[in-house]
Q: What sequence folds into this?
């Protein structure tokens, strides 16, 4: 990832040397904010710089120049790009994402509803997959190169190759169409009871868990093996320490940071999975909203959704780095 | 490369990839019907004249699968090759030039990687016209960020080795150092990475097509075929599962080969066996 500049070269040396951990975390926070601004420029400015005129696409090729000029003025895209960017950014900072081009509704209202639905889905997928993945990863390391490890290895290799939509339709075919245990499509609406909601998201959650699990497990296994193969573990073994003691006292503290990183990375991956899974299960979340908006080229919605997804992604990566900093003694006391 | 030492899993993988490639190359000769030819009623079951049944418009599913292999593999392969060309060129340049160039390229790469690939693609494809070459370009540029990262790390590893230093002192040019010193020594790692990126490109293209933003109809491609036939799933029609399974199987086959390549490289280097 991004390397923080060496602390000792900074001005304000006293303070930063007294609280090196705090300073590293603050640096990481600032970096995320800078990154978020850069991403906002890419999502807004970069997109506007690309060829393709919205008004023409919107009205079709046969539109009269007058009609195109009218719609450009109405949507406010006849003004210079910098003005519009700062207006957009000001709106975003106050929680206003503008108005949808397709139906003239407030984007913020729509997103407020759907973001909750998406997070609901992602939350349950996360609390099921994280313990399962870390547990299975440890089992694989424990039985390394023996039968359980080989089975887990082959199964997870197959699982990472499955596209989300294939897993989704396979589950629908088995559980909804042939046996009728689960419901499809996964509609949720306001005033639905909590239990009904849970049963509605059972299949989408299962799909997400299956997709994320394999990745997370393989990476957990690699991270733990990486630590287990380092020289100090060998030393501990040669010293005659017991297996449990080696794992608890020597391996675990050093494996914590990479495992946290793996978990956060895969939670970030969950965001992308959500987009496809929502489309498969016709689930009213952010992902479906964004895909619909992309196909009708409803830019304010696309930009808002893109920005929020990116912000969540950046936030998760930042959390991972900060937790890794806290968990890593070497980063806690630089030099 | 010693093929005789390849394990069974690698052979299965290579056979699968070869089968898909044969379908892709000889599609017009193998396929029993035309790509867009309507041959019968919609969603006919498997068996009879139509081995895999028919799709949502009454086209022969097997023929479309074979033509779909062509589109899916061609587009993914082109995008992967292009992304490697871009990523490798920039990463080697960053390592060889170092300093400001390296800094600028690396920070730009961090920025691109700060947005999830699918989200980035959705935002960009919302603006650009729906053409296949634009799709390939978008896939290549987005994927080249990953290649850049790997390429830079690998090249940095090699660039500090003694034989590169020796070449530099000998007065060799930058091109010689890249092509005759660094590239041959990074090749096996990059080959495994190429397989991984190719599998990823197939999954990514299929996902985009499934969302309706990839290959446009009536051209057959596996992801788009899942989308075309998805309404049938409620009636128990398996027409959308077949292309889905094809994508999964091809990706699994590629991963099996890559798995073997990676194990090989790590054992050659005498590294840890963290497969």
A:
């Amino acid at each position: 990832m991004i390397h923080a500049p060496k602390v000792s070269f900074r001005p304000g040396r006293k303070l930063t040397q007294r609280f090196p951990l705090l300073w590293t975390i603050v640096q990481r926070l600032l970096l995320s904010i800078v990154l978020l601004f850069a991403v906002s420029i890419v999502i807004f400015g970069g997109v506007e710089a690309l060829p393709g005129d919205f008004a023409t696409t919107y009205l079709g090729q046969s539109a009269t120049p007058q009609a195109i000029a009218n719609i450009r003025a109405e949507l406010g895209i006849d003004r210079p790009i910098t003005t519009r960017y700062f207006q957009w950014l000001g709106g975003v900072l106050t929680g206003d994402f503008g108005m949808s081009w397709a139906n003239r509704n407030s984007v913020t209202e729509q997103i407020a509803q759907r973001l909750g639905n998406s997070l609901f889905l992602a939350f349950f997928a996360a609390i099921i997959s994280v313990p399962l993945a870390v547990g299975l990863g440890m089992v694989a390391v424990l039985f390394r190169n023996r039968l359980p490890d080989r089975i887990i290895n082959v199964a997870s290799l197959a699982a990472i190759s499955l596209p989300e939509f294939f897993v989704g339709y396979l589950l629908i075919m088995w559980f909804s169409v042939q046996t009728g245990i689960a419901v499809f499509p996964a509609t949720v609406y306001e005033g639905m009871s909590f239990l009904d909601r849970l049963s509605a998201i059972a299949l989408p959650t299962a799909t997400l868990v299956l997709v994320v699990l394999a990745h997370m497990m393989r990476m957990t296994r690699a991270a733990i093996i990486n630590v287990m193969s380092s020289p100090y573990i060998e030393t501990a073994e040669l010293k005659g320490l017991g297996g449990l003691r080696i794992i608890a006292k020597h391996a675990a503290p050093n494996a914590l940071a990479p495992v946290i990183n793996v978990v956060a990375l895969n939670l970030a991956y969950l965001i992308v999975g959500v987009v496809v899974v929502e489309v498969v299960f016709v689930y009213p979340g952010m992902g479906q909203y964004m895909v619909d908006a992309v196909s009708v080229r409803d830019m304010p919605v696309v930009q808002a959704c893109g920005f929020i997804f990116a912000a969540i992604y950046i936030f998760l990566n930042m959390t991972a780095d900060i937790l890794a900093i806290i968990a890593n003694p070497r980063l806690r006391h630089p030099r | 490369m010693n093929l005789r030492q390849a394990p069974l899993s690698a052979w299965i993988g290579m056979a699968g990839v070869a089968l898909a490639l044969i379908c892709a190359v000889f599609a017009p000769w193998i396929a029993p019907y035309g790509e867009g030819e309507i041959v019968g009623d919609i969603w006919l079951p498997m068996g009879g004249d139509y081995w895999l049944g028919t799709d949502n418009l009454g086209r022969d599913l097997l023929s479309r699968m074979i033509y779909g292999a062509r589109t899916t593999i061609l587009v993914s392969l082109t995008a992967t090759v292009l992304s490697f060309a871009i990523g490798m060129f920039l990463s080697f340049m960053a390592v060889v030039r170092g300093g400001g160039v390296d800094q600028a390229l690396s920070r730009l790469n961090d920025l691109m990687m700060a947005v999830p690939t699918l989200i980035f693609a959705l935002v960009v494809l919302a603006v650009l016209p729906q053409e296949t070459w634009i799709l390939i370009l978008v896939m290549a540029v987005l994927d080249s960020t990953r290649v850049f990262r790997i390429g830079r790390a690998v090249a940095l590893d090699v660039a500090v080795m003694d034989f590169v230093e020796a070449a530099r002192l000998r007065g060799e040019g930058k091109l010689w150092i890249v092509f005759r010193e660094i590239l041959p020594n990074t090749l096996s790692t990059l080959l495994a990475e190429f397989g991984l990126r190719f599998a990823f490109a197939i999954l990514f293209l299929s996902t985009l097509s499934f969302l309706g933003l990839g290959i446009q109809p009536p051209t057959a491609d596996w992801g788009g075929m899942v989308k075309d036939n998805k309404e049938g799933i409620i009636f128990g029609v398996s027409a959308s599962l077949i292309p889905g399974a094809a994508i999964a199987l091809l990706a699994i086959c590629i991963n099996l080969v890559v798995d073997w390549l990676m194990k090989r490289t790590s054992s050659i280097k005498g590294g840890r066996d963290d497969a």
